[in-house]
Prior knowledge:
5 helices, 247 residues, alpha+beta, 5-stranded antiparallel beta sheet, 4-stranded antiparallel beta sheet
Amino acid sequence: MSIDEPRVGPDGCGGNxxxxxxxxxxxxxxxxxxxxxxxxxxxxxxxxxxxxxxxxLPAAAPQLSAPPELKRRVMSSVRxxxxxxxxxxxxxxxxxxxxxxxxxxASAWLRWRPNxxxxxxxxxxxxxxxxxxxxxxxxxxxxxxxxxxxLVPRASASLSVSDGHAQLxxxxxxxxxxxxxxxxxxxxxxxxxxxxxxxLFTVAAxxxxxxxxxxxxxxxxxxxxxxxxxxxxxxxxxxxxxxARVS
Length: 247
């Protein structure tokens, strides 16, 4: 395997799920890993789980600026770790291939970069948990992140609710059928009818989308997503693919 190829273990699965979600792979690595997850259920599930966290974080976290001192400490730690790993790889490279330092240096970068992406995602998860805990005791009630029920295999969705407004974050959803779009619906009671919104959307090539739910969701029981003809429908024509219970 050359240093330009994605890192893949003996079981066929690599450590590229987190950097794939965070966009930390090269174009070649991204394409290779995208092909890999087409036939690997383990990696698809890992990507879907990580995408759920990555998609929910921007909506759940209030827009706050980190103190300059915290930024400096984090970046110093990252750079020190990178230098340490590169130095270790260079020493190993010199021991095994005297006079050849450029390939081990590049190899060092490729090996620690996925780990750094995993660490970044872990920090994001911790930050999300801290924000949720600190916001929970505030007068405004903070932000709730609700995991939605998704009927599409390997897809996931979460609903962020704050101050009466909501946002859906989707991952792993299939592209809309030809001539169709996804439509968001509201239900205000268990037995009530689904009310249409003007939220019509499609998903990106990787199945991800972030959709704001129009208006206030105060008094809304469920938020649903269906596949509808272009332009949307006034009543659902197909069963809901996503259901998020707000209350």
